[in-house]
Each structure stands twice: as C-alpha cells, then as structure tokens.
Design brief:
It contains 15 helices and twelve strands. With 413 residues, it is of the alpha/beta class.
C-alpha cells in the first residue's frame, strides 16, 4: 500500500512504574482474545500532530500486546492536500468556500488511495476526516471492520461539508470521539468515547535532568533562574496569543522578573494564521523576556518537555476546538496550570483541584500572581494534576479502551 511507518519497539512492561502492575495485567488479559488481529491505522501525516504522537506510542504497544498493528500514511498531491486542509477547517467550524471542484479532487484522492489498499486487514481505523471516503472505494478490504476515529470536534462542522462526509461515514462500523460534546447528533453509526492520552515515557514527557533543562533554556536565551510562563498552542486566533501577552504584562506589574515562552504547535499556513503570528511577533519584538518558538521546525519534543518542566505556571488562554492534550503533558510534570473553559481543557484541569480555570485577562493575571506567590498551592495543584492524569489520560487507559472496542468489533459478524 503506502508503506508502513517504521516504529521503535515499545515494551508495555516499561509503563509499569507509571501505570501500575494491575493496569498492565488488565491490558494483557484484554488483548488475549484478539491476539494476531491485523489492524491498520491510517492518517494523513506521520509526524507533527497530536494524532501522530498518539499513534507513535500506541501502535508499537499494541504489537507488544500480541496484535498485528500497522500505521500507514495516505498519499495526496499538493492540490489534494490543500483541499484536505480546507475540509479539516470546515469540519472544525471555520467558514470555507467549498466547491464542486474541491469535492471532485477529494473523491479522486480517496479512490486512488483505495486502490493502494491491497493488503488484507481485519480492522481498518481512519484517524483523520480527509481519508474517510476511501471506505467507499475499497475492494480488497470490503469485509474488514472499518472504524472512524475523529480527533476533531465535529459539533459545529460546516453543514455542506459535513453532509458530504456523512454519506461516506455511514459505511463504517463504528466511530470514536475524544469527548461526548465532539460528536454530532446526526451521526449515522454508533459512537464510542475515547479521550486522548499521553505517553509518560515519550521524549515529550520523560524525566530530564536539571543540567539538560538549564542547557536547553540557555540555548534559547531563557534565564533558568527567573520565573517562566509557558503557553503551548496552535498559531491561530482562537488561542488568543496576544491575550497571553496581556496576562504576562499584567502579572509583571507584581513580578517584574517573569519571562514568557510561546511554543506554537502549528506553522501559520493561511492568511488568518499569518496575521495571528505577525501580531504576536509585533507584540514581543521589543520584549527581551518574551520568546516564540515553533514545534517541528525549531523545537522537538525534548525541548517542549524542557519548557514545560521549567515553567512556573503553564497557561492555556484559549482553544477553538479539540482537547488541548499538551495540558495533560504539563500536569504530568506537576506544573500548575491556568486554562480557559474551552474544549477538553476542563476535563483535564479541575478548578481548584488540579489547577485554575479563568475567563478574563484579569482573572488569568491574578491566578498567575497567586501561584507565583504561593508555592505550596502551586505544588498541591501539580501533585493533584499528575494523579488526575495518571487515572484518566495515560496511554494505558487509551489502550484499554481501544482493546475493548476492537474485541467488540471482532466478535460481530
């Protein structure tokens, strides 16, 4: 087909310290009835997204559990990739001018990729909306069980694009969403809820020495001795990046040594994203204590790990759609978090227990000042946050959910 991605072997036993013996034993018991099940995961990219991060951990671990799991990336021309990006935006609620020509390009790409699907599989999981029409054109795997896993909040999808997609989704056996609110009422098939999860042993979350943290911070011009705010998000208007600068500047009235680092998880790929980046760069240009870095091109997972571990407070000022799982990365590192009541953020940050939920700039600034001035409260949020992630957002819980769904699909005739 497209060429299976080469993945590093992962051993489930390596997660014993983080997840506990009982969780490991439960996963092995759940996997036993479906040992050898041949599972294909399809996505639009093999790196740089939360979906890719999740598959990079979960697919090797499924193999360690005895499944025959694969991960492949669909092919697309530049023209089809542009249409795919527009579809993704429309399904996420951004107004897009969708045309008949775009539909034709999308369907041709799906038909081409269906022709490449020549190996037999028992279950095929499509992790992005762009390739979902492949199911309508397949012949080799027409009898396989097909599972749609939406990592996107579809609740406010553009109606014409959603109706186009809905007809193809109806051919699937089941769907997965990350939260109940992300699913639509008019879904044409059964929906399971599987929240995303972090891998505590990945480069993004593994323990780091103080020397490594100090070295990386110094390389980026950040003073390891001064307090630091960290904001991780896509480069889009909904993340309210300039609003983060406002919070920082207000908090600096009481904490003049406070630094700020933005880790942008996406590059600006459209005029709106470019405007957002330009506005942020303009606000930070004359601020020697504000830093902007982009994940992928400038920094990798280790650097993101460093910035979060070094942060006195982790912020999430806004979120248009989705889960914002990088907050769980921060909570696992026992960092106190202040977040907006948006997307999946409130499932991760429980106000007053694992962090603080704020609405206005003043509320954010007051929360930051409180955490900087009260280390005991900050540490308490951090400890509770790690426990919360350990129960709800570790990769072992994700695997448990998935094994149950795969077993259910496998049993159905």
């Amino acid at each position: 087909m497209y060429g299976t991605l080469a993945l590093t072997h992962r051993a489930l036993d390596d997660l014993r310290d983080a997840a506990g013996e009982a969780a490991i034993a439960e996963l092995r018991a759940l996997a036993r009835p479906i040992e050898g099940l041949r599972v294909l995961n399809l996505s639009v990219t093999g790196f740089g997204t939360g979906t890719a991060e999740l598959l990079n951990s979960s697919v090797p671990l499924m193999n360690d559990l005895g499944l025959d799991a694969h991960w492949q990336v669909v092919r697309a021309s530049e023209e089809a990739a542009q249409v795919g990006r527009a579809m993704y935006q429309a399904l996420g609620g951004v107004a897009v001018q969708w045309t008949r020509e775009m539909t034709d390009i999308w369907l041709r790409c799906a038909e081409m990729n269906a022709g490449l699907l020549t190996e037999p599989f028992d279950v095929i999981i499509v992790h992005d909306p762009q390739p979902l029409a492949i199911r309508s054109y397949v012949t080799t795997n027409a009898d396989a069980k097909w599972l749609m896993h939406s990592h996107l909040d579809l609740s406010s999808a553009q109606e014409d694009v959603w109706m186009l997609l809905r007809g193809h989704i109806a051919r699937y056996n089941a769907a997965i969403f990350e939260a109940p609110a992300f699913a639509r009422d008019d879904m044409p098939l059964p929906a399971h809820i599987v929240p995303p999860a972090i891998d505590p042993n990945s480069a993004r979350n593994m323990p780091l020495s103080d020397d490594v943290i100090r070295t990386v911070l110094t390389q980026y011009g950040i003073d390891p001795e001064r307090p630091l705010l960290c904001h991780v998000s896509p480069c889009d208007a909904a993340s309210d990046l300039c609003g983060v600068v406002d919070v920082w500047q207000k908090a600096r009235g009481r904490h003049p040594e406070l630094q700020l680092v933005f880790v942008l998880t996406t590059e600006p790929q459209d005029p709106h994203g470019r405007t957002c980046y330009d506005d942020l760069a303009r606000r930070c240009r004359e601020e020697p204590s504000a830093f902007i870095v982009s994940a992928g091109n400038e920094v990798g997972n280790v650097e993101l790990n460093v910035f979060q571990r070094a942060a006195s407070v982790v912020l999430q000022k806004g979120l248009r759609k989705g889960f914002g799982l990088w907050v769980s990365d921060a909570l696992w590192k026992e960092r106190p978090c202040v977040v907006a009541p948006a997307g999946g953020l409130t499932e991760q940050v429980i106000d007053g227990r694992t962090g603080i939920i704020a609405n206005t700039t003043d509320e954010f600034a007051a929360a930051v000042s409180r955490l900087l001035e009260d280390p005991a409260t900050a540490a308490g949020y951090g400890k509770s946050g790690r426990q919360h992630v350990g129960k709800r957002f570790l990769i072992t819980r994700y695997l448990r959910d998935y094994l149950r769904i795969l077993d259910e699909l496998h049993r159905k005739n």
